[in-house]
Specification:
Layout (H helix, E strand, L loop, with lengths): L2 H17 L9 H4 L10 H7 L2 H10 L1 H21 L4 H22 L30 H12 L44 H18 L16 H6 L7 H13 L19 H15 L32 H8 L3 H23 L10 H14 L1 H9 L4 H14 L6 H15 L2 H6 L19 H15 L8 H11 L8 H14 L2 H5 L5 H17 L5 H9 L1 H8 L5 H13 L29 E3 L7 H4 E6 L5 E3 L18 H11 L1 E2 L5 E2 L2 H8 L5 H21 L4 H10 L12 E6 L3 H18 L16 E3 L1
Antiparallel strand pairs: 1-7, 2-3, 2-6, 4-5
Helix pairs in contact: 4-5, 5-6, 5-7, 6-8, 7-8, 8-11, 10-11, 10-13, 11-14, 13-16, 14-15, 14-17, 16-17, 16-19, 17-20, 19-21, 20-23, 21-23, 21-24, 24-31, 28-29
């Protein structure tokens, strides 16, 4: 039968279903088989031939027929999984049912009255034959998920058969799926022969699995992080005997993927890469199964023991979700190396494009990879320490900085900006990250930033400066995070370049103008962060940082202005008047931009009409992080008040956001129009805590000496002054060094909810062929056009 005929017959069946007013019996196989038995329809055909309006019409007008259709389609998948799909006909039925369910499920989730349908044990259709089998007591959702899991390890359908032609077919029930893992890597050494048909079949089933999990999109975001997703919860439980091999297959498929085309440039132009869609689908299924709020559950503890298996089994039992559990227990160095190298290779892929355009296939799933990397670091502390143990972490840092810089002007990529910054915040809580940043930066990825010679720390500062001064308004909530990262790494930065030093001072200059300080309740925190970073560098890394010291001396007026900040009402009023005339938050004046790198393109805004999904607000920096103090021996001690005691005893140098908020409410008046009104008391309350002592002492000692050199030698040449500063010392002249404060990321349900909306938004927008969720009534986020 030709493909046109089979499409026609399939369409006829759909029309019959939508026009029948009477329930069709589940036993009427002649009717139901039309949907899957003799058709060869692609998933695109199914989407075209089953219009949304008709699915909704059946749902409203003959619900029992929609229920029977779902029940019969699941029944066919269960039968296929039981028999092992040996004939072509069985394989075709399984694929057709899988596509049909992928089409229909979002419309079931969309309607709250139907949401329990898949979890009921007696489908509306009643069971055919009515035999009292135990299996019959399973909710439909469970039968569906177990069938899909079995089908993902079905010899000659989704995995290579191990039997010789003389053997009888492998028994699906006794088959050990751990011997059929899809790709070498974690816990599996054998790399199966690539097989196009198997990849395509796996992809269809993973698409169905993702659609099952997508019920989360139809529930509004919950402030407490929301409950667990019942589909994910069941699929990742001990009920699924394939949980371990499937987790490993997904992880290895993603991390082993090499889009370059086996190392030969331009190879991808000769061979179409059928692996990429599977890798992308695997990455999406993986991050969804790992959607787990670590703030509310006990996460496995870390100890240094090593056992012979890929999963560390010495830890106490971790979360119920086996995927999270397995991820948190990976512990072998070679496994970490494989995962890190794989993710770094894929994240760097878009950067390779810029050296040899089109030499490699450009992958599009970097956002899913960043979520996966985040989950790995968040759930597996041994992995985090491994990443920071060598300079390999820089292979993650550079692509993230590239994405941040590239997306800074694009409203549709706010989510990407956030996740990049969150990952850097998480890494910056560890001393080793700051130490690694001292490695010279020689890779010249074309980026729209000033040219500089220096380290990875310089690159980070130059990119952050660019985001703050030339990103769009929606990024302002990230400024606190960006500067917290700078403070966290500052005690370890051995030598900043002149370009980076000037950028930091330009930020201080911009943030300490009176109108900026007075125009919002928490703008002054940014000045506190920058001063804290300068203090750390002066106290702990003075010797190599003559460029920064010189920049501070040149811009000394900024520090004097801060020390003499006006606090009287007329001056405050005048500063705010000035603001109404100059609404631009940060000017580029005073920052010598310099030429951008060769071959770079300016960061572009989104094309008009680009779709984006809304995101929930992220918690403030005080909720995102907890303060720790670095002791003499390098260990961290948490400074968070254990009981809700007043935080007045926290050191005066660090004006903390939560404390500041309480102060502000007391000291400022918010006028009836909701307009922010700074008062003298409010300004005084934080001005007195500005940590200026160290810098003022430095200026007091060095400025006269520098001025003397200039007068004596008639110097206008900075190299002589820099030479003097390089050899100078302030030993014994500065105040006693303050303890180093690190603000470490802490898990919280606010970020867990943010990750959920971000991740599903990415998945929604990236699945366009077929458009699984388009035009359905999702509740987790809004779809907006730029």
């Amino acid at each position: 039968m030709g493909s046109a005929d089979s499409k026609l017959n399939f369409r006829k069946a759909v029309i019959q279903l939508t026009t029948k007013t009477q329930p069709v019996e589940a036993t009427d196989d002649a009717f139901w088989d039309q949907f899957w038995a003799d058709t060869a329809t692609s998933v695109q055909d199914v989407f075209a031939l089953v219009p949304a309006a008709e699915i909704r019409a059946v749902r409203e007008e003959s619900p029992s027929n929609l229920a029977t259709l779902c029940y019969k389609a699941v029944e066919k998948l269960v039968q296929g999984a039981e028999s092992g799909c040996h004939s072509e006909k069985e394989k075709q039925i399984v694929l057709n049912c899988s596509r049909l369910l992928t089409r229909v499920l979002p419309y079931i989730f969309e309607d709250p009255d139907w949401r329990g349908f898949f979890w009921s044990t007696v489908p509306g259709a009643g069971r055919a034959g009515g035999e009292g089998d135990d299996e019959n007591a399973r909710p439909l959702a469970e039968s569906l998920l177990l069938a899909v899991a079995d089908l993902l390890f079905c010899p000659d359908f989704t995995v290579q058969s191990h039997r010789r032609s003389t053997d009888s077919a492998e028994d699906v029930h006794s088959l050990d799926s751990c011997e059929y893992i899809w790709e070498a890597g974690v816990g599996f050494a054998h790399s199966p022969q690539p097989n196009y048909i198997h990849d395509v079949n796996r992809m269809e089933l993973l698409k169905l699995l993702l659609t099952c999990f997508s019920e989360a999109m139809y529930l509004p975001p919950a402030p407490d992080g929301g409950g667990t997703n019942p589909w994910v919860q069941f699929f990742c439980s001990t009920e699924n005997r394939h949980a371990l091999p499937l987790f490993t297959s997904l992880l290895n498929t993603v991390c082993a993927y090499d889009p370059v085309g086996y190392g030969i440039p331009y190879n991808h132009l000769l061979f179409s890469d059928y692996r990429e869609p599977l890798v992308e689908e695997a990455a999406q299924v993986l991050i969804v199964t790992l959607d787990h709020d670590s703030a509310t559950s006990t996460s496995p503890t870390v100890d240094g023991t090593t056992t012979g298996t890929a999963m560390d089994d010495t830890d106490p039992p971790g979360p119920e979700n086996l995927f999270v559990n397995y991820l948190s227990r990976i512990h072998r160095e070679e496994d970490f190396q494989f995962i890190l190298k794989g993710i770094a290779r894929l994240l760097s892929n878009p950067l390779l494009q810029t050296y040899l355009p089109n030499s490699t296939k450009k992958i599009q799933f970097h956002q899913e990879l960043l979520v996966l990397f985040w989950k790995l670091c968040d759930f597996n502390k041994k992995f985090l320490f491994f990443v920071l143990k060598s300079s390999d972490v820089l292979d993650i840092l550079v692509p993230i900085l590239y994405f941040l810089n590239d997306a800074r002007a694009d409203h549709s990529r706010v989510g990407l900006m956030h996740i990049g910054v969150f990952i850097l915040l998480l890494l910056s809580g560890e001393r080793n990250f700051g130490v690694r940043l001292n490695k010279p930066y020689s890779v010249r990825v074309p980026m729209d930033i000033p040219v500089f010679t220096g380290t990875h720390a310089d690159l980070l500062i130059v990119v952050f400066h660019k985001i703050i001064t030339s990103g769009h308004q929606r990024l302002q909530p990230l400024f606190d995070c960006l500067l917290t990262i700078v403070v966290n790494v500052s005690p370890y930065l051995k030598s900043l370049s002149m370009v980076a030093a000037n950028k930091l001072l330009h930020l201080l200059e911009a943030f300490s103008t009176t109108w900026f300080l007075f125009s919002a309740a928490q703008n002054h925190h940014l000045v506190f962060f920058l001063l804290e970073a300068f203090n750390n560098i002066i106290q702990y890394q003075f010797d190599g940082n003559s460029n920064l010291v010189y920049a501070i001396i040149r811009k000394r007026s900024v520090f004097h202005q801060l020390a003499n900040l006006p606090t009287d009402p007329p001056a405050i009023h005048k500063a705010l008047q000035r603001r109404r005339r100059a609404p631009e938050p940060l000017s580029r004046t005073g920052s010598q931009e310099g030429a951008s790198m060769e071959g770079s393109h300016p960061a572009a805004p989104a094309e008009p009409g680009t779709l984006k999904t809304s995101l929930v607000a992220t918690p403030g920096i005080d909720k995102l992080t907890e303060k720790s103090q670095v002791s003499e021996d390098g260990t961290l001690r948490s400074l968070e008040p254990t009981s809700q005691q007043s935080s007045a005893d926290s050191s005066p140098a660090t004006e903390e956001p939560d404390q500041a908020w309480r102060e502000q409410r007391r000291l400022s008046s918010v006028s009836a129009s909701g307009q922010w009104n700074p008062t003298s008391e409010w300004v005084l309350s934080w001005k007195s805590k500005l940590p200026l002592q160290t810098i003022m002492r430095l200026l007091q000692v060095l400025v006269p000496q520098v001025e003397k050199i200039c007068i004596d030698k008639g110097l206008t040449d900075e190299s002589e002054i820099l030479r003097f500063l390089q050899h100078g010392t302030l030993v014994g002249l500065l105040p006693v060094p303050h303890p180093i404060l690190i603000r470490k990321y802490q898990a919280n349900s606010g970020t867990a909810m943010w990750f959920r909306t971000y991740m599903w938004g990415v998945i929604y927008l990236r699945n366009v062929d077929p458009p699984v969720w388009y035009d359905t009534d999702v509740k987790l986020f809004e779809i907006q056009r730029v």
